[in-house]
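User: Okay, second chain of the day. Same drill as before: sequence in, structure tokens out.
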Amino acid sequence: MKNKIFLILIMACLFVTTVSASNGEIMAYLRNFNVQLNGEILDLRDSNGNKVIPVVINGTTYLPVRAISSSLGLNVDWNGDTQTIILSTKGKEIIDYNDDVDSDFKKTMDDYEAFIDNYVIYMNKYKSGELSFSDILKYAQILDKYNKVMSDLQNIDENSLSSSELNYYLETMNRINYKILDILN
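Assistant: Same drill. Structure tokens below.
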């Protein structure tokens, strides 16, 4: 019984943490919610590849600097002497696909990735047993969307893709593959 109480207390501390500060007491909550960038759900990870989650302190949400910056394509460094987080684009090639990629092709790829994002959310709810009855009824809509997205993807002529379109395709598919792998873990 003591072990169960101890375990419950430890789990509670993981989710709600009270921190003493020099000017009083603050409440910090770990919140496992999605962060989207341009319609893409970000996979927030620390420098060791561990999943990180946002923290809410006194009603303000704080996002992990390294995870957000990496998602934006920024270099992240730390200067321990000056206690400074250094963000830069130096040495990073930021690709803007807006001019070199056909808008219909880009929309097809973006729609496919958005479908996968929603599918991952649905499957994670399924895995955790959190599907409501209305969620179960939405599965037919998910299948309809899948058929539309797959039909659009099949209409892409891979042999006619420009190098920018091929890069966009490969980067999008790479992100999608990681998202699908996340479901399997």
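Confidence is low (pLDDT under 50) at residues 1-22.

User: Thanks, on to the next one.
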